[in-house]
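User: Last request for today: this protein with nicotinamide-adenine-dinucleotide, please.
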Amino acid sequence: MRVLVTGAAGFIGSNVVNYLESKSIDTVAFDNFSHSDYRNLLNTNAEIICGDVTDKDFSKNIPKVDAVIHEAAITDTTLADDAKMVRVNYNGFRNIFDFSVEKKIPLVYASSAGVYGKAEKKMSEEQEVTPHNTYAYSKYLCDCWVNKYLQKNKTPPIVGLRYFNVYGPGEAHKKKAASMIFQLYNQMIENKNPRIFKFGQQKRDFIYVKDVARITADAINLDRSVISNVGTGEPRTFKDIISILNKLLKTELKPEYIDNPYSEVYQNYTEADSSKLTKILKTEADYSLEEGIKDYLENYLKK
Ligand SMILES: NC(=O)c1ccc[n+]([C@@H]2O[C@H](COP(=O)([O-])OP(=O)(O)OC[C@H]3O[C@@H](n4cnc5c(N)ncnc54)[C@H](O)[C@@H]3O)[C@@H](O)[C@H]2O)c1
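Assistant: Here's the final one, the structure of the complex with nicotinamide-adenine-dinucleotide:
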């Protein structure tokens, strides 16, 4: 079996490639290397293709594949170029979608918990969504397209995964868009007080990238189409991250509270309703926040 992974040089894409290879599945790693780290692919046997998902002819160099995992996107939610955001994230998705429909092969694509916008309770796939920025809107457009298309057409399984807050190895190139775990670790390792938005009570559903990669890659075997949340269902505070890091680093650093410049669009609360993940994808996150941060720190960040 051979799987095309787009956005393969990025954070989640490269973890998906690693996971597939660990299961002896061949991969074609497609990326335009615009917002990635080539080192994420150094230890893979993937066939590398440098190309752009917005290019109508993107597939001309792609060998025969049996499934597609689409991770390529602009992921900096603060990017001010709306046209670029929608072009890459939605038009690019549509090209990949058309490719998988034409080839009659399963498609798994990255959506986002961003589509839910601001909330104070569990986020369910059935609820109305209110994207609060163009990034979230671009992901919402993908989900809408899939829902509409599936009403009238029969296709091989199409699986949209609304990832919650992912952290783990391979995210360093994302800089300010990398996870809170990465940001806080980098401050604390320099013995600086970790800076968090006032007053650290924000709660997020943080999920380790190894869980995300496994869930995403295994979803190519699903026998039906679905749009599902991918989270732990257990939101944790930013203060929790600091106390886990303090314990692992043997420090006692106190948080420094700062104003949130993105407060109008910032998701202060995310929590996945994991019913579809457990009932339809028949899986769940293995790593608790404590276990995920420990693995990340000891096996990657410290090295
Ligand atoms: N990291 C998270 O917490 C999170 C949460 C929700 C959803 N997602 C989604 O998961 C997917 C992967 O995100 P990530 O965190 O790995 O981000 P990332 O920025 O590390 O990866 C995106 C990859 O896409 C590539 N890319 C960008 N534009 C491209 C184009 N036009 N053609 C080909 N490749 C292109 C980039 O070079 C990069 O390697 C994205 O679709 C993102 O929206 C991520």
